[in-house]
Amino acid sequence: MKAPLLSWSTRSGRARLYQAALLAAIALAAALLWRNTRQNLTARQIRTGFGFLGQPAGFDIGEGLVRYGPTDTYLLAFAAGIANTLRVAVAGIVLATVLGTLVGLGRLSRNALVRWLCTGYVELLRNVPLIIQLFAWYLVATEILPEASSPIALAPHVYLSKGGLQFPHPVWARGWAWALAAVPPGLAAAWVLARWARARRERTGRGPRLAWPAALLAVAFPVAGWLAGGAPHALELPEVTRFNVSGGVSLTPEFLALLVGLCTFTAAFIAEIVRSGVLAVPHGQTEAAAALGLTPRQATRLVLLPQALRVIVPPLTSQFLNLTKNSSLAVAIGYPDLVSIANTAINQNGQALECIVVIMSVYLAINLVTALGMGWYNRRVALVEG
Amino acid sequence: MEAIAARPDPAAAREPPPAAPGPAAWVRRNLFSSVPSALATLLVGAALVRVLPAAVRWLFTGAVWAPDYEACRRLEYHAACWGFVAEKHRLVLFGRYPFAEQWRPLVATLLVVAALAASAHPRSWRRWLAPAWAVVLAAFFLLVRGGALGLTYVDPGLWGGLPLTVLLTLVGVSASIPIGIVLALGRRSRLPVARGAASLYIEMVRGVPLITVLFVASFVFPLLLPQGLRLDPLARIALAITLFQAAYMAEVVRGGLQALPKGQLEAAASLGLSWWQAQRRVVLPQALVLVIPSFVNSLLSTFMDTSLVTVVSMYDLTGALRLALGDPQWRNFFIEGYLFVGAVYFACCLAMSRYSHWLEKRLGRWARRPEASAA
Amino acid sequence: MSEPIIQLAGVNKWYGRFHVLKDVDLEVAAGERIVICGPSGSGKSTLIRCINRLEEHQQGRIVVDGVELTEDLKSVERIRREVGMVFQQFNLFPHLTVLENVALAPAWVLRLPREEAEARAMQQLARVRIADQAAKHPGQLSGGQQQRVAIARALCMQPRIMLFDEPTSALDPEMVKEVLDVMLELAGQGMTMVVVTHEMGFARSVADRVVFMDEGRIVEQNPPREFFANPRSERTRDFLGKILPR
C-alpha cells in the first residue's frame, strides 16, 4: 500500500508538508505586502511601471564617460551612472591591488621600519569607517587644496587644485590609432617569444627566461605603430586661466576623493589577504624546496606562489566586490554614480520601487558575473584531491 | 665502532653564547640586513625625521585646547584647534539629545561597555548570559527613552551620537543572530524550497551595498505597511540593519555548521533524537561556539557600518559630527573634528579586533576542555 | 678507514634561550646506516636538520662530504645536492603531479633538459614501485604512496647521503611496511642513511649503529646488538623499556 503524498508519518511526506507550509507562508506574506504597497501607492498618487525610463529626467550629470544633459532620458541617466560606477570601481581595483600587494609584502619584510609602517597603515585604515575616510578625503580635496586659479603643478602641465586633477591628453591622430591597433599583435609576439624561450629551456635545460625581452617586445609594437603613423605628439594642455584651469583631461575632486578613499581603504584589506596567503603555505613546502636545492627565487616561483595564489584569489575577489559596493558611498560626497543618480531620480519622480529595483539588479548582475568567473577559476586551479 | 659510555649528566642546560650585544645586533639584523633594506631604512627614517616633529607640533605643543574661538582663529591653521572638540564634544557625542538629560545615554552606554567587559571572558559564558543581555538592552532603552520611572520621555528622533551608534549596533547584531541561524539551517537543509528561499535571500542581500538597503528602509518600508500604520524612522533603520546583517550572520553560522564533523549529527540520530532536537542540543551549541570569533568580527563590522546612517539623515556619531561642523563659526576646523571622531572609532574597533584575536587563540585551547559549556 | 662523510664536532644549538643540542659529536662513514632514537624533544630532528642546514647551529663544526657548513650560501647549495631528505609530513607539492614533483629539482637545480629529467624521475618512481601513479596528484594517493614518492623525489637528485626524519610516524600502521621496505632496499644498495625513527625493527635489521639522544645530548651509541642487549645508561634502558614490545 503506497502512503499518501502528504503524509506526516513518512520522511518524504513530512518534507513535502514542510515545504508546502513554507511556500504558503511566503506567498501569503508576499500577497499581503503587495496589497499594502498598491494601496499606499494609489493613496500617494505615485505612478508605477518602468515607463518613466523613456521620459526626460530634467537633471544634469556633472561628469562621466557619458555626456548627459537635462533633456536626456532616465534610462540614459542610469546608464551614465553605471558607467561612472564602473569607472571608479575598475580604477580603484587596479590601484588597490597594486598598493595592497606592496603593503602586504611590506608587512613580511625583514626591515623593521618597513614592517611597522605597513602594519600601522593596515591597522589604521581597517579600523576607521570608510565613510569617515571618504569625508576626510573629500574635505581635503575641496578645502585644503588651493583654488583653481593657482593650482599646484605636480609636473609640467599637470595641475592639482580644488577644481580637481588636470593633465594633458594627446590630440587624437592617425599615429595613436595605429599604436592602439598594434597593441594586440605586440602582446601576441611577446607571448610567442616567452613560449619559445620556455620550450628551449625545457629541451636543453639551459637558456634565459627572456621575460624582460618579451615585455620590451610588447611595448615595441605600439611604439612602432605610433612612429609609422607620423609620431603625433600634439597634446591638449591644461592652461591656467584667471579663474580656473581649462583643457586637458579633468578629474573632479569628487572622483579623486572617492578613488583615493576606496583605494587606500581596500588596499589595507588586500594587504592582509596577501600576507595570510603567503603565510598559509605550510612551512614544510619551503623546507622541501630548500632541501632539494632550489634557490629562494626558484622556490618562490615554482612552489610558494602557485599555492599562495590559490589561497589569495577567492578573498581577493570578495574585496573587489566590496570595493564596487562601497563605491555606492559616492552618494555622500556627490559623485554621480549609479546610487547617487537613482537617489536624484527618486526625488524627482517618486518612483522609489522601480529605481531601487534598477540599482539592485545592476549590483546583483555584477555579483553574478563575478561569482561565475570565480567559480570557473577555482575549478581550474583546484588542488586535485582523492 | 666503539661504544661511547654514557656521559655524566649535568642537569642544567647552558645559556646561549652572547652572540652580540642586544640592541646593536637587532639594529643590524632588522634595519640593515641588506643593501635594499638599508636604503629603505634611510629613506623611511629621513621621511619620519621630517614629518614627525612637525606633526607633534601641530597636534600637541602648538595647539589650543580651550574652547576659545579667537585663540583658534589666531592660529591660522598652523596648529590644531582642539577648542573645537572642547566646545562641541557634547553635540558630537550625544547628538541632539536634550542637554540636561545627556547623563542618561552616557550611563546607558557605560552600562553596555561594562556588560561587554563582563561577557568577554569565556568563563562567563553560561546560561544566564543571554537573559542578562536582554536585561541590559531593556535598561538601555528605558534610560534613553524615558517615559517611566520619573525619567522624561525623549523622542527617538533626538537620539544621536555614540549612544545611537551603540544602540544600532547592538540591536542589529542581537536581532540578526536568530534570523541568521534560521537562514543558515535553511541553506543547509535537504528541502529544496527552504534551501532555495534561504540562498536567494542571502545572496541577494549580500550582493547589494548597505546604502541600497537603507534606501529600501527609507523609501520602501513605508509602502509595505498597511495604511495607517507608521513605523518610526529609527525603527525602520534598525530593521534594515538587522535584515542586512542577518545575511552575513547566516554565512558565519553556516561556516560553523560545516566545520562540525558529520559524525555529531549521526550520533544524535542514532540515539533517537529528532532533527530539531539534534540541532538544538548537539549541533548548534557546538557550531555557535566555534564561530564566536567571527561573531565578534560581525559586531565590529556592524559597528563600522552604522556610520552609513548619516546618509539617510540619522545623527549617529558621524552624522552628529557633520551637524557640529555645520556651525559656520567652527566649520573650518573639520580636520580636528574628523581626527576626534576617527580616534573614537579607531579605539573602539582596535579594541574589538584585538579581543577577537585573543579570543580565537584562547578558544583553540578552551574548546578541547570537556566542560565547555555554552547554553 | 677513510674520512667520515658526515662529521659533527662539539655542535651546540639554541632556540632562543632553549639549549636544544648540547655538545654533539657524531661521525658517519660512507655507506653507514645510522638510526637515531630518543624521546620527543630530545633534539633528534633538529640534529639531522642541521646536517642539510635547514637549521643553523651556533657552535661547533659540521662537515658533510668534505664541505664545512657555514653561513656561506655556496657551501649550503653544494651540500644540498649531495644530501637528500625525507620528511615526516611528506611535503609533496600538491599543485604538481607525482612526475612533476620528482622531476622538478633535476630540471631546475641540475638544469637537465625536461625529457631527461622526466626519464630520470620515472626511473626513480619505478625504483620505489610507484611508476603507475606518475600522472596523479599527491592528494589522490595514500600516505604510504606519498612517502614513497617523497623518497623517489629525494633520490632523483642522486645524493650520496639520505636523511630520514621520522618517515613513518605519520602513516597508518598498514602502510608503514611499504615505506620501510623501500628504505631496506636503499640500505641494501649501499646508501649512507641517517634515520630518525621509532621503528626498532628497522634498527635491528639494517642499522650499523643506533644512537640514543636525550635532552640534546648523545647518551649512547652502539651497534644494534649491543645497544638492545646491553644498554649502558639508565635513561637508555628506561626508553627501551617504554618502546619495545614486551
Task: Outline the structure in words.
The complex is a heterotrimer of chains A (386), B (375) and C (246). By secondary structure, chain A is mainly α. Chain A has 2 domains: 74-171 and 245-385, MetI-like (MetI-like fold); 176-233, no CATH class. Chain A contains 12 helices and 8 strands. The mean pLDDT of chain A is 86. Among the domains of chain B are: 21-52; 90-97 and 154-367, MetI-like (MetI-like fold, Orthogonal Bundle), CATH 1.10.3720.10. Chain C has helices at residues 44-51, 73-82, 98-108, 114-127, 143-155, 173-188, 200-206, 224-229, 234-243, and strands at 6-15, 18-28, 33-37, 59-64, 67-68, 83-86, 161-165, 192-196, 209-214, 217-222. Chain C has a 6-stranded mixed beta sheet with strand order 6-7-8-3-9-10, with helices on both faces. In chain C, helix 3 packs across helix 4 (114-127). Chain C is globular. Classes of the chains: A mainly alpha (386), B mainly alpha (375), C alpha/beta (246). The interface between A and B is large, with 53 and 54 residues.
Structural class of chain B: mainly alpha
Order of helices and strands of chain B: HHHHHHHHHHHHHHH
Helix content of chain B: 55-70%
Question: Regions of chain A with pLDDT < 50 over 5+ consecutive residues?
Answer: none
Order of helices and strands of chain A: HHHHEEEEHHEEEEHHHHHH
Q: Which CATH architecture of the domain at 90-97 and 154-367 in chain B?
A: Orthogonal Bundle
Shape label of chain B: globular
In short:
The complex is a heterotrimer of chains A (386), B (375) and C (246). By secondary structure, chain A is mainly alpha-helical. Chain A has twelve helices and eight strands.
Question: How are the SSEs placed, and which strands pair?
Answer:
The complex is a heterotrimer of chains A (386), B (375) and C (246).
Chain A: H1 11-44, H2 74-107, H3 112-126, H4 130-144, E1 152-155, E2 158-161, E3 164-167, E4 169-170, H5 174-204, H6 211-228, E5 235-236, E6 239-240, E7 245-246, E8 249-251, H7 253-280, H8 283-291, H9 296-326, H10 330-333, H11 338-349, H12 352-381
Antiparallel strand pairs in A: 1-2, 2-3, 3-8, 4-5, 6-7
Chain B: H1 22-31, H2 35-61, H3 69-75, H4 83-94, H5 103-119, H6 129-145, H7 161-187, H8 192-207, H9 210-224, H10 233-259, H11 262-270, H12 275-290, H13 292-305, H14 317-324, H15 334-366
Helix pairs in contact in B: 4-7, 4-14, 5-6, 7-8, 7-10, 7-13, 7-14, 8-10, 9-10, 10-12, 10-13, 11-12, 13-15
Chain C: E1 6-15, E2 18-28, E3 33-37, H1 44-51, E4 59-64, E5 67-68, H2 73-82, E6 83-86, H3 98-108, H4 114-127, H5 143-155, E7 161-165, H6 173-188, E8 192-196, H7 200-206, E9 209-214, E10 217-222, H8 224-229, H9 234-243
Parallel strand pairs in C: 3-8, 3-9, 6-7, 7-8
Antiparallel strand pairs in C: 1-2, 1-4, 4-5, 9-10
Helix pairs in contact in C: 3-4, 3-5, 4-5, 5-6
